[in-house]
Amino acid sequence: MAKLVVHQDKINDINELISICPFGAMEENNGKLNITAGCRLCRLCRLCVRKGPKGAVEYVEDEKKPLIDKSIWNGIAVYVEHVGENIHPVTYELIGKARELADKINQPVYAVFVGNNLNVEKYMNIKNKNITRKFLNKNRCNQKIIQR
């Protein structure tokens, strides 16, 4: 997590720096400036870094950044809005728009059904008279089913 480091030797007027903080997260303690005083937490807005004496407060990022392999992130997922066995019509519009975008970036489209004890075949064939299956096939849309 990022943090603010106070360089006490570069502070001439502690009260001036304290007055800059809009959250009251700074206080003087034995002639030194402390950040995150009491229950008033610093929100890392960095106003003290920008408006305070040069170099008095330094914003430090974490050295370790989590390594995430984003090469496996692909495709465009569209959540299938449904109540009971009825799919909301806006879902079809969203899948169509997703397909347009996916064609431009050469990615697949996924229709994501989320629910408990889903019978997706029922959604695809019976209730919607095969309209949904034909629509998804026409738009080259894969199905992702998440059962909870």
What does this entry look like structurally?
This protein has 148 residues and is of the alpha/beta class. The protein is built from five helices and nine strands, in the order E-H-E-E-H-E-E-E-E-H-E-H-H-E. A three-stranded parallel β-sheet has the order 5-8-9. Strands 1-4 form a two-stranded antiparallel sheet. Strands 2-3 form a two-stranded antiparallel ribbon. Strand 6 and strand 7 (86-87) form a beta hairpin. It is elongated and about 70 Å long. The chain starts with a strand and ends with a strand.
Short description:
With 148 residues, the protein is of the alpha/beta class. The chain has helices at residues 14-20, 47-51, 89-105, 120-127, 131-138; strands at residues 3-6, 26-29, 32-35, 57-60, 76-79, 82-83, 86-87, 109-115, 141-147.
Helix content: 25-40%
Give the rounded overall mean pLDDT. 78
What's the main sheet like?
A: 3 strands, parallel
Sheet with most strands: strand arrangement: 5-8-9
- Beta-strand portion reads 25-35%
Count of DSSP H/I helices: 5
Number of strands: 9
Structural class designation: alpha/beta
User: What does the radius of gyration come to?
Assistant: 27 Å
Spatial separation of the terminal alpha carbons: 33 Å
The geometry reads as: elongated
Note poorly predicted spans.
125-131
From N to C, what is the helix and strand string? EHEEHEEEEHEHHE
